[in-house]
Amino acid sequence: MSPSTLERTTRFQSSSRGFFSRSGWEKAVKATTMICAFVSIATTVGILVVLLSQSLPFFREASMSQFVSGTEWNPSKTPPAVGIWPLLLGTLMITIGAGLIAIPLGLLSAIYLSEYASPKVRGVLKPALELLAGIPTVVYGFFGFAFVTPLLKNIFPNIQNQNGLAGAIIVGIMILPLVSSLCEDAIRAVPRALREGAYGLGSTKFEVTMKVVVPAAFSGIMASFILALSRALGETMAVALAAGSTPNFTFNPTQSIETMTAYIVQTTKGDSAVGGFKYHSLFAVGITLFAFTLIMNLIAQRLVKRFRQVYA
Fold first, then answer.
1. Does a structural domain hold residue 100?
2. Are residues 48 and 142 located together in one domain of the fold?
3. Residue 134 C-alpha from the chain's centroid
4. How many CB atoms lie within 10 A of CB 234?
5. What is the domain extent for residue 13?
6. pLDDT for residue 44
7. Is residue 76 part of a domain?
8. pLDDT tens, 84-136?
9. Closest by alpha carbon to 166, among 266, 265, 257, 267?
10. Rounded to the nearest 5°, which phi and psi values hold at 191?
């Protein structure tokens, strides 16, 4: 190395010391990522603290037993009826109904796109399927009210204009791209060697797919199911337009229902006084919805951890 080159190298190393050195940048990146992680945790804790603090006045006036076991929801009534079951049943009806539609269709479409479709067909069908995820939820809700319900009246003449069945169908269509895309990613992540080994033993395409590939991708598939159901659990606008805003204690999907999210939206845009009993009922419903979402996420983590397979 010439003296001039050595001098320039020494000058660069000395100038790169301090904050702008490699170690300085590493510390800055580490601090930034740590701050982002703490912000996300602090946000979750903050939401939980607000929900708990604002729901306590509600439970001071309404007993927990009435909230858990009651079958009528009308906080504006005198005395107020605060049984959560009408809202809970409406939410479960939409979530389970959407899952019954999206989970089998999404899984089968993912299997086809990953294992059977040619690259040309996959290049057309996959973007078309994922296009459904970009449609605004309010458009889905109007579509369910103006198109799906009139079709359902041909089968169920007594169905109401806003009903749980239409809401479940619409939400099922909404979460279908999520199930399909995540399941396909999980299936395509299975090593090719497993498929080739099964073929070498004389298995057919169907046997390889159902007995080797799908079980190997089971953890990712289950995670996609739970994530999609969590998405359906928290859906608001589409459900409010298609399913209605009537808190009925019913198992009949042809009747108008109300979910927990729809109640929150309806009450928020209404004339409920801040600090009043009905206002605090929003947070009681919100903490219930938070608990259900947390439980579903914990179940997803447990399933992924239990059935996860790591390939070298």
1. yes
2. no
3. 15
4. 17
5. 3-61
6. 87
7. no
8. 999 999 999 999 999 999 999 999 999 999 988 888 888 888 888 888 888 88
9. 257
10. -60, 145
CA distances to 12, 13, 26, 31, 207 from 16, rounded to whole Å, are 6, 5, 13, 20, 60
Structure-token pair, residue 109:
């479409």
Distance (Å, whole) CA 24 – CA 12: 15
Co-location of 39 and 109 in the same domain: no
Which bin fits 18, alpha (ψ -120 to 50), beta or left (φ > 0)?
A: left
Q: What is the pLDDT of residues 178-230, one digit of tens each?
A: 999 999 988 988 888 888 888 888 888 888 888 888 888 888 888 888 889 98
Residue 73 falls inside a structural domain? no
Same domain, 105 and 237: yes
263 and 148 part of one domain:
yes
Q: Are residues 157 and 221 in the same domain?
A: yes
Stated pTM of the model: 0.83
Query: Is the domain of 104 the same as that of 243?
Result: yes
Q: Which pair of structure tokens corresponds to residue 111? A: 């299997």
Region 158-174: what's the mean pLDDT? 92
